[in-house]
Amino acid sequence: MVTRINGFSGMDVDSMVKSMMTAKRIPLDKLNQEKQILEWKRDSYREINSKLVDFRTNKLIDKYGKSAALNTQKAIVSGNTDALKAEASATANGIDMKVSVTQVATRKTVETFGLAAPVASNKTLADLQIMRDGTDPATLTEADRTALNAEEFKFTINGVSFTDSNGKSLFTGSTSIATMVATINGNTNANVTAKYDEISGKLIISSKTSGTDGKADLVATDDNSLLDLFNPQNSTDQYKTTDAKNAFIFVNDRMYESQSNTITINGIQLTVEKTTVNQTDPKVNPTTGDTPVTIKTSSDTETALQTIKSFVEDYNSLITLLNTKLDENKYRDFKPLTDEQKTAMKDTDITNWTDKAKSGLLKNDDLLRSALSNMRGIISGQVVALSEMGITMGSYNSGGKIVLDEVVLKKALTENPQKAVDLFQGTGSEANNGIFDKLADKISGSLDSLVTRVGTSKFSADLTVSYKEESAMGRKLKEYNNRITNMLTILENTETRYYKQFTAMETAMNKLSSQSSSLFSTTS
Question: Domains of the chain (ranges plus CATH)?
Answer without folding.
Answer: 23-67+304-328+363-472 (no CATH), 73-105+245-299 (no CATH), 109-242 (3.30.70)
